[in-house]
Amino acid sequence: MSFLNRCVQAARSPFSLLGAVRTATKRAGGTVHNHGGSPGKRLGIKKFSDQYVIPGNIIVRQRGTLFHPGDHVKMGRDHTIYAVAPGVVRFYKEKWMRGERRYVGVVLERGEVLPRDEESRGRSRYCGLVNLNGEAPRTQNVVRTN
User: Fold this and answer.
1) Taking the mean position of all CA atoms in its chain, how far away is CA 139?
2) Which residues have CB under 8 Å from 97's CB, separation 6+?
3) How many domains in the chain?
4) What is the pLDDT of residue 122?
5) Which of 33, 41, 50, 84 has the fewest C-beta atoms lying within 10 Å of its C-beta?
6) Is residue 91 in a domain?
7) Signal sequence span per UniProt (predicted)?
8) pTM (predicted TM-score)
9) What residues contact 45, with CB distance under 8 A and at least 6 apart?
10) Residues facing residue 45 across a β-bridge
């Protein structure tokens, strides 16, 4: 083959200007076998501000203490915050060290705000055994005969 023939062939080739072209030496990749992992844990806020809760209702599911417990709520061992009294959920912030902490609390009446001003309003008390706003329970008359 003469030099002229090789130049003509090189000019016709689409890869002459690019140089060497790499071709695949392995098959195309397939799907990953163990992708996805475990299902989601359904974390987050379950009851928002101004929502009514009863004792035992979960308010926040979290990992770590993003929200801290306030009035009438407690924290479970997995940092879940739940209500211990019936009322309305309130979220608020308080100064803590150099920053702020976010708190979750339950107020007994819809108009209240947290943090509660205890000097002017007094302590918030809840006793599940006595209903101060309702009627007294009726007693049955028992007749004793000797």
Assistant:
1) 46
2) none
3) 1
4) 85
5) 33
6) yes
7) none
8) 0.64
9) 59, 60
10) 60
